[in-house]
Amino acid sequence: MSSPDLILETHSLRRRFVTRKPLLGPPVEVRAVDGIDLRIRRGETFAIVGESGCGKSTLARMLVRLIEPSEGTVLFENRNITSLRGEDMRAMRRDLQFIFQDPFASLNPRMTVGALIEEPLRAHGLGGPDERRTRVAELLERVGLLPQHADRYPHEFSGGQRQRIGIARALACAPKLVIADEPVSALDVSIQAQVVNLLQDLKDEFALTLIIIAHDLAVIRHMADRVGVMYLGQLVEVADTDTLFTRPRHPYTEALISAIPVPRVGGPPPGPGLQGEPPNPIAPPAGCRFHPRCPYATAICRSTPPSLVPQASGASVACHRASELVLQGLRDTGTGRSPAAEQRFALYRAMRAQREGSNPSVSQHPDPEI
Amino acid sequence: MLRGARMTDRAPLLQISDLSIRFAGVPGNLVDGISLTLNAGETLCIVGESGCGKSLSALALMGLLPMPPAKRMSGQAIFEGQDLFDLPLETLKDIRGNRMAMIFQEPMTSLNPAIKVGEQIAEAVRRHKGATREEARDRALEMLRRVRIPAPEKRLDEYPHQMSGGMRQRAMIAMAMANDPALLIADEPTTALDVTVQAQVLDLMRRLQRETNAALILITHDLGVVAEMADTVMVMYAGRIVEAGPVRQVFEDPQHPYTIGLMSSMPDLGPRGGRLVTIPGVVPPADAMPEGCRFAARCPFAGPDCAIAPPLRDLGGRHRVACWRAPLECGAPDLIAQGVAT
Predict the structure, then answer these.
(1) Which of A274, A368, B49, B67 would be A188's cystine partner, CB 3.0–4.6 Å?
(2) Does residue A95 contact residue A177 with C-beta atoms inside 8 Å?
(3) Strand B43-47 vs strand B215-220: parallel, antiparallel, or unpaired?
(4) Which of B194, B269, B342 has its CB closest to that of A330?
């Protein structure tokens, strides 16, 4: 069934949480993730998008078993990791690493940065003390910090630097797959760009497969090869990035795209936008879960849930009307800046390149701040 | 096209001149010489990253900055003919929530969790308009309707925690707009919201502003939001204005290297390109602000003269920039000659 280029697959992955246990009657459950089938190809960057509460973070955590699935399986390199126990799972974790949104919350404040990055190496019994120390220094340099930062504590670093530490730690054991949950959304714009570049460089250098969870569609457009759109615990569309943004096939994808504020003055005005908010996941609507907010909904949408069906274009869409609807992609493709602005951007790039030498790789100019 | 342009023959609604703020124990000004003018009906967007002083300036304006530890070193803020910094607290309280109001990124920090939403809105109306309980409640209901909260009669008697994030943000807007303020200050009002809800809230603010001709100061870091909302834009870096002007001019003819860096570090929505252009380094810490241009350490165009702080020059048409190098083409003739930038 599985073709060899898939690194990770999920089959009917589900997770329920009990939100309330009334004295009488059955416990109230929320189906945070409700039947996800993913096929992640080796070497790609796959993004998962959706509004808050759609289950994307729960899904990400299940892929590395930080949260145990209620049902379904996760196959990593054709091995079912949901049934692995003890030492086998620990070994598997070497290959599967996770980067968190808030690098401060995920780094033990009482450990030095060096100890934090070394910890996974030690846990997996990789190298002797000297080798590990060298490796930590290499990693720090690689993410744009300095080897002497190993002796400092996380609180001495800014948000962007802490995210770099989180990345170094995730890369310490040379994983094959890295899952990043909102890796840049807590960072300022200029710092966000640095971290986005770093992730892309490292992905190439370490031949990683990257799964990014994000709600910033511009970042996704920039980084991802393919995108999966989630709504209330289910995938509604999976497509390669360009197709998804220019020719969305699901009405929810269209709505998400039309809501992106475009950084161009006098561009086309924003669309009518999506009305309402995501419904309560405890009692999702019958039929297609999106139908109460969908401008195209018909009778069948109110009664029968659509399933994710592959289309001729290679995309998969869960919509009864996918074949007949013609939906609107990006209002503005971002090109066509004024010549004056374009010239200044080019000048800025040229000047930066000139000051930093011809290779503007992150490792060439460690963060000068500390 | 400035919606407030017709008002320019009259005195502006708000005129801030040379506002500087400093904190006890920190040697430099964290807000340093801010001046701006705002007319009725106009939207000013303040853009900048954490620590640039955009929220501090807004809080100072509202009289919400605790002094001490903060201290105003200089500056005036003339709002409807009165200097906000020179008013007794009681007078300021009459203006606040009445003639000017503020909304915040996280509505839960400004809504009282123990009081029903309708009562909170009504309280503001009773405090400032001397309305009766019934009148105030009617006004609260009308406001909830105007911000398009579904089933407003029911929501009046709900507590903030019973609402979703987007709904709470609407309730806070309803409260801020309940007394028809002339000035609304919104500090990152949509940053915590999903993109679809953000679009709804921005649309709501535009609509209310059209209806009431209020001026809006919108603090944000999202240049997309700026492009959609602003008449004028002010870019701040480390406590200073580095560039300001009508939004079209700033976007189509950006002058300051920081503005340019900020614009090019945002991933654009065009076909996928290679690496993002970044601004190296980080903002200088508050206790180590450089004497000269505060952006110089991160600026690819910086030279020895940047050790002296550049003044905010007017380039014409209210477009102002604080950079010795602007326009940048003139400072890099060799690169132009190589054809990189043409």
Answers:
(1) B49
(2) yes
(3) parallel
(4) B269
Per the structure, how many domains does chain B have?
2
- Residue B300 with chain A: CB contacts under 8 Å: 348, 351-352, 354-355
Helix, coil or strand: residue A192: helix
The CATH number linked to B79 is 3.40.50.300
SS3 content of chain A, % helix, strand, coil (to 5): 35, 20, 45
Angle value at C-alpha A202, between A96 and A33, nearest 5 degrees: 40
What pLDDT is recorded for position B334?
A: 59
Q: How many CB atoms lie within 10 A of CB A314?
A: 11
The 10s digit of each residue's pLDDT in A36-70 is 999 999 999 999 998 888 888 899 999 999 899 99
Q: Which residues pair with B79 in a beta bridge?
A: B14, B82
**Beta strand extents in chain B (DSSP E only):** 14-23, 31-38, 43-47, 70-79, 82-83, 100-103, 183-187, 215-220, 232-237, 240-246, 313-314, 320-321
- State whether B188 and B311 are in the same domain: yes
- Span B87-141, pLDDT tens digits: 888 898 889 888 999 988 877 778 888 999 999 999 888 888 888 888 899 999 9
Q: Tens digits of per-residue pLDDT, A128-173?
A: 889 899 999 989 988 888 888 899 998 888 788 888 899 999 999 8
Task: Say if the Cβ atoms of A189 and B266 lie within 8 Å.
Answer: yes
> Which residues in chain B have Cβ-Cβ distances shorter than 8 Å to A274?
196, 199-200
For residue A362, the model assigns a pLDDT of 39
Query: Do A346 and A337 meet the contact criterion of CB atoms below 8 Å apart?
Result: no
Query: What are B274-328's pLDDT values in tens digits?
Result: 778 888 877 887 788 888 999 998 898 888 889 999 999 998 888 999 999 888 8
At the topology level of CATH, where does A6-224 sit? Rossmann fold (3.40.50)
pLDDT level of residue A270 (50, 70, 90 thresholds): low
Q: What is the DSSP letter of A322?
A: T
Residue that terminates a domain, selected from B178, B205, B230: B178
Is B272 among the domain residues? no
- Contacts A–B by Cβ distance under 8 A: 199
| pLDDT confidence tier of residue B1, bands split at 50, 70 and 90 | very low
Q: Are residues B82 and B155 part of one domain?
A: no
Does B126 share its domain with B139? yes
Residues B142 and B223 both lie in one domain: no
Say if the Cβ atoms of A263 and B251 lie within 8 Å.
Answer: yes
Last residue in a domain, options B146, B178, B210:
B178
What are the residue boundaries of the structural domains of chain A, listed by start?
6-224, 231-262+270-317
- Parent domain of B87: 5-99+179-267+277-338
- Burial class (CB within 10 angstroms; exposed 0-12, middle 13-18, buried 19+) of A323: exposed
